[in-house]
Amino acid sequence: MKLQRKNRLRAVTLGAVAVSGALVLTACGSDDNAGGGGDKGNAGAASKIKCAGEGQLLAAGSTAQKNAIDQWSKDYSAACSGVTINYQANGSGAGIEAFNSGKVSFAGSDSAMKPEEVAASKKICKGGQGVNLPMLGGPIAITYNVEGVDDLVLDADTLAKIFDGKITKWNDAAIKKLNPEAKLPGSKIQAFHRSDESGTTDNLTKYLQAAAPKSWKYEPDKKWPNQSGQAADGSSGVASQVKQTAGSISYVELSYATGNEIPTAKIDTGAGEPVEASTDNASKAIAAAKVTGKGNDLAMELDYTTKAASAYPITLLTYEIACDKGNKAETLKATKSFLAYAASEQGQSSLVKLGYAPLPAEVATKVRSTVNSLS
């Protein structure tokens, strides 16, 4: 297991390349930033990317998709030296806020815009509105740090009670029932959640509400809904706290768990065998998602209560949010070029080694068509 984690870590490390560049605000109706200017080393990637536009694109939002954006930006830069992409991973809520205040070309979000956010986007997208473009998916891993426990199974009801402060010891009867062979200590559970507004939190709370309605009484939200547990900023902050805190548990995108070599729990969905957090298992859940958006909006709905064999239920779809109409002329070409690459077969195929799940082919085709129609 340790060797496998080290191999995954190497893949994440190679894929996650920091994107630098001056911040120039060039967005839908304001200044914004986008990535990619540089190195010609990746000839294979460069040969298929259709470059357009020039300058810098500024984007912000989801920390869950940061490793993917870094990889896409690296590959895009190898082909398109005239464009530089700068993505600020500051959380989905902050990304949407930046988009709706006209500070970025596009925002990354781990949940679709709310109706009031769409309404606000119309002030920036002159003659249009912000639309949700699903770009990648992946499992939200339940990470833990319990000495002597390398194989942990949890279910929705137990997770709901842990994150609501109702289960406070690792040897609680509910956890022991799910793990009869494990040597569970009597130590206190140290539960961590995101301090920033996060689409990852939104997806986890959607899962808890859907799969454990009797134990989780809170509405889904990007903001953590109760006072239980401790808080940390961003995916990297949560992962760091779990790694260094004995008895801890939290939720984070799989790439952050594997990158930090933190164990992840299997989820008992009632499917017969507990389901591991993996790219393949997340893909099985995403394949059953339904498009609920209208027109150019491709917001999707996941089934958090799935009992399909090997379908991992705590899965997110993360979006790029852009104007369907009313993009600023100076950045429109570069925005479309970069997003088209991200949604391409080439861009999607680069995700697996980073712990993400590529879009189903049918959805990716719709995204490419919508990106092409942006104006």
TrEMBL record:
Region span, Disordered: 218-239
Keyword Transport appears in the UniProt entry: yes
Signal peptide: 1-29
Keyword check for Protein biosynthesis: no
GO terms of molecular function: phosphate ion binding
GO BP annotations, alphabetical order: phosphate ion transmembrane transport
Residue ranges of every copy of the PBP domain listed in the record: 53-345
Pfam families: PBP_like_2
Keywords: Phosphate transport, Signal, Transport
Sequence positions that bind phosphate: S62, T63, A64, S92, D110, S198, G199, T200
Superkingdom as given in the UniProt entry: Bacteria
GO cellular component labels: ATP-binding cassette (ABC) transporter complex
Entry's family note: Belongs to the PstS family.
The protein's name in its UniProt record: Phosphate-binding protein
Protein source organism: Streptomyces coryli
